[in-house]
Amino acid sequence: MMLWSILLVSCISEKIIDTAQFITDSDGDGFSIEEDCNDNNPSIHPQASEYCDLIDNNCDGRIDEDESVDAYTWFYDEDGDGYGIEEQSTLSCTNPYKHSAYAGDCKDDNPAYHPAAPERDCTDPNDYNCDGYVEFKDEDEDGYAACIDCEDDNPKVFPGATEEAKSQCLTPTRTADYYAAQSSAYFDTMDYRVDMEEWPPYSDLVARWEWPPWLLLTAFSRENIEFTDTLLKLYPSIVTDRDCRGFDTQPFGRCYVTFYYDSHNGLGCPIYEEFTFNDQGEITFIEAWSDLDGFRPQTLDDPWAESENVYRLSTLIPGLGNETGRVDLEGEALLIASQNNNDINDFIYRAENWYSTWFTEYMASDDSMWSVGCGWE
Predict the structure, then answer these.
(1) Where exactly are the structural domains of the chain?
(2) Beta-strand runs (E) in the chain
(3) CB of 85 closer than 8 Å to CB of 76
(4) Nearest 5°: CA angle at 309, between 305 and 311?
(5) Crossing angle of helices 354-364/222-231, nearest 10°?
(6) Measured between alpha carbons, how far is 250 from 183 in angstroms, rounded to an integer?
């Protein structure tokens, strides 16, 4: 009996040893060495997830398959601009042919279109950067981009338009120094010390509008303004204090000046004055205000009247924005504008009857005009 027991134990032990040898699993990942392609690494076995790491993680004889857990998403990129089509994507550990890591291309047959494309031309209606927006806008659908159309809510106003165009439609054709110098030259005509060799560059239909307490339209045409400037020599003055500057938006010339009148004991009269120019560099409109509180058009924090809220007649009158700056007093555009603005209506009336309206205002004026407008009260 003893012998039998010993023999039985011996057989069982041999069987256990044989079985242990059969299921050898060095890394303890549950797979024998016969199944495990790397029995020294528990993360590698037939049921392991595949990764993009140049290793056969799941022992199927392949590495970095498209089904890898960390496979990248690539987008088909026909034009090779680095951006593909979101709807055409694939997974892969490496970049497939004609694919990109970035999507968002809205026109994949043209490398000029992609999310990083520049859009600098406001006159170009193409959405190069695929964001659904373009710099180009044309609200009035007149064929001209808003960035070059000074009135993009009016299809009758566009670059090259004549009757409808207002002064702000013009862009400078001269330097800022030119506009400043010609604006300053205007005051030479009223400074008796200056020996005038030539008149400032007035256009043939130049208008001068001087807001109250002054006399409103005090000249209309080159002939009229030269006449009145000559007449002003009867009231000797000097204009020593001048600060004239040029701007890249109309009015291109703007000045702060002070008149000193002999007839008023040399008292100073501060004036703010603006000058509108045409493409030929001629002055087409002169607009003046007393530079005293309650009269000037701008606020103290906007000394050069650059705010869009500044009310000035020169930017409201149709015709001043054509290349010559000629205003058609009988034109439809001006008549329509006058129906909505009393100052434009008054301008038309005075321009059509310049001498009589100016003379009436002149005869009705007295020294109170100077005391109020110059601050001599």
Answers:
(1) 48-115, 169-374
(2) 72-76, 85-92, 99-100, 202-210, 216-220, 237-246, 253-261, 267-277, 283-290
(3) yes
(4) 75
(5) 20
(6) 13
Residue 304 Cα distances to 24, 142, 175, 296, 347, angstroms: 92, 33, 18, 11, 24
Query: What is residue 161's predicted lDDT score, i.e. its pLDDT?
Result: 65
The answer, yes or no, to whether residue 377 has pLDDT greater than 80, is no
Q: How many CB atoms lie within 10 A of CB 363?
A: 8
Distance CA 13, CA 18 (A): 9
Residue pLDDT, tens place only, 275-327: 999 999 999 999 999 999 999 999 999 999 999 899 999 999 999 999 999 99
Fold exhibited by the domain 169-374 = Nuclear Transport Factor 2; Chain: A, (3.10.450)
Could you please report the per-residue DSSP string of 329-365?
A: TT-HHHHHHHHT-HHHHHHHHHHHTHHHHHHHHHHH-
Is the pLDDT at 93 greater than 60, yes or no? yes
| Residue 119 vs residue 310, higher pLDDT | 310
Note the Cα 187 to chain centre separation in Å: 35
| DSSP-based helix, strand, coil % in the chain, nearest 5 | 25, 20, 55
227 to 102, 189, 221: CA distances (angstroms): 73, 11, 10
Question: Among all chains, which residue has been given the structure tokens 């060799």?
Answer: 197
First-residue to last-residue Cα distance in the chain: 145
* pLDDT (mean) for 334-358: 94
Nearest to 275, CA basis, from 176, 355, 364? 176
Question: What are the CA-CA distances from residue 33 to residues 130, 253, 279 (Å)?
Answer: 55, 93, 92
> How deeply is 87 buried, as exposed, middle or buried, from its count of CB atoms within 10 A (0-12, 13-18, 19+)?
exposed
Percentage of the chain surpassing pLDDT 90?
47
Q: What is the pLDDT of residue 22?
A: 56
Tens digits of residue pLDDT in 158-205: 666 667 888 988 999 999 999 999 999 999 998 888 887 889 999 999
Can you give the C-alpha Rg of the chain in angstroms?
43
Q: What three-state secondary structure class fits 178?
A: helix
What's the pTM value of the predicted model, to 2 decimals?
Answer: 0.66
